[in-house]
Write a structure and sequence with these properties.
Elements: H1 4-14, E1 22-26, E2 33-34, H2 39-46, E3 51-57, E4 60-65, E5 68-73, E6 79-82, E7 103-109, E8 114-118, E9 125-128, H3 144-151, H4 158-163, H5 173-183, H6 196-216, E10 242-246, E11 249-253
Parallel strand pairs: 2-9
Antiparallel strand pairs: 1-7, 3-4, 4-5, 5-9, 6-8, 7-8, 10-11
Helix pairs in contact: 5-6
This protein binds a DNA duplex (16 and 16 nucleotides) through loops.
DNA sequence: ATTGTGGCCTGCCCGC
DNA sequence: TGCGGGCAGGCCACAA
C-alpha cells in the first residue's frame, strides 16, 4: 500500500544516492520491466551514468539518470532499500522479511552500495522514460482550482475519481477513505453533484490529511484505519461504518456524517 | 469516450 | 491441527 506518503519517504531515502555513478542494474525477472524499452536499452541508459536527481509524482518515483529517466512503481507491497536501509520496515498487507526472490531490481553504484526494490507480490514495475503526463496533479500540491478541473463533469463516484491517477495522482485506498471521512463527504456521490463549498472542503481535507498522516508516519495511521472492519465504529459520532466496493476497492464510510 | 470489473500475485487470517 | 478459501489493494486490460 505505498501511497504518496510512503513514496515520498522513498524519495528522501533515494536522495542520499544522488551524485553517484551507476555501474550496473540487475533485474531478476524481466516482467518487472514495463514499457517499450527492453533490458538492453535500460542497461545502456544507466551504465556509467550519474544519478542526477530523484523526483516523485503521485506514487511514481522518478530517477533522473544522465539524460534519461527511470520510473519506479511500488504496487502494493514494494519497498525501497538504499544502502541496506529501508525507510519503512512494516508495510501493511505484506511481510517485513526480505526474501531473495522478492528482490526485483538492484542498482549498483561505482561508489559502492546499492539501491534496490523488494516487492513480494510483484505488482510494482520499473519503466524507462515513463510518461509523466499520464499522471494528474500530485495530491500533495493540488490547488483548489485543479481539483475542480479533475472532478468536474464526471459521473464517476467521488471515491473512484480520487483513485484515478490520471485525474489526481498519489492517493490510494486508505488515504481516500480517510480524506472523505474527514471532509464529511459520501464516497458514492457522483463527482458532478459536488457544490463549490464541498469542493473547498475536499481540497482542504486532502491537504490536511496528507499533512497529518505524514507527521504520523504513513497512509495507514488515519483515524478510521482501525475501524475499517466489520462492526467498525465512526470515531466522530459512534455510528457503525458502512462498507461497499467503489472503484474496485473496499470502501468504508460513516452513514451519519458523510453526506 | 467514460465507467466498471476481473485478474495479476503473495501472505495472512479465519473457519471447518 | 492443518488446510483452503477469502481478502488485502495498485494498476492494467478489457467489457459494457
Amino acid at each position: 500500500m505505498p501511497e504518496l506518503i510512503e513514496v515520498e519517504l522513498y524519495r528522501k531515502s533515494a536522495a542520499r544516492a544522488v551524485g553517484r555513478t551507476i555501474s550496473s542494474v540487475t533485474l531478476p525477472n524481466l516482467t518487472y520491466l514495463k514499457g517499450t524499452q527492453g533490458l538492453d536499452a535500460l542497461q545502456s541508459a544507466t551504465h556509467n551514468q550519474n544519478l542526477n536527481q530523484v523526483r516523485r509524482k503521485g506514487k511514481l518515483l522518478i530517477l533522473d539518470i544522465g539524460d534519461r529517466s527511470l520510473g519506479l512503481r511500488f504496487g502494493m507491497t514494494g519497498r525501497l532499500v538504499v544502502d541496506g536501509k529501508t525507510p519503512i520496515e512494516r508495510l501493511l498487507y505484506t511481510t517485513p522479511k526480505v526474501q531473495r526472490n522478492h528482490i526485483r531490481f538492484v542498482m549498483t553504484f561505482a561508489q559502492g552500495s546499492e539501491l534496490a526494490m523488494v516487492d513480494p507480490r510483484g505488482f510494482g514495475n520499473i519503466e524507462l522514460q515513463p510518461d509523466e503526463t499520464k499522471l494528474g496533479p500530485d495530491a500533495a500540491n493540488i490547488s483548489r482550482q485543479e481539483l475542480g478541473v479533475s472532478l468536474k463533469n464526471s459521473n464517476a463516484t467521488l471515491k473512484a475519481r480520487l483513485l484515478n491517477q490520471q485525474k489526481i495522482s498519489g492517493l490510494g485506498n486508505l488515504l481516500c477513505d480517510e480524506i472523505l471521512w474527514r471532509a464529511g463527504l459520501d464516497p458514492r456521490r457522483p463527482c458532478r453533484s459536488l457544490k463549490e463549498r464541498e469542493l473547498d472542503l475536499l481540497a482542504s481535507s486532502i491537504k490536511r490529511t496528507i499533512k497529518v498522516l505524514t507527521q504520523r508516519g504513513g497512509s495507514h495511521v488515519g483515524d478510521i484505519q482501525d475501524q475499517r472492519r466489520k462492526t467498525g465504529i465512526c470515531p466522530k459520532d459512534g455510528s457503525e461504518l458502512h462498507r461497499c466496493s467503489l472503484g474496485g476497492r473496499t470502501t468504508w464510510w460513516c452513514p451519519e456524517h458523510q453526506r
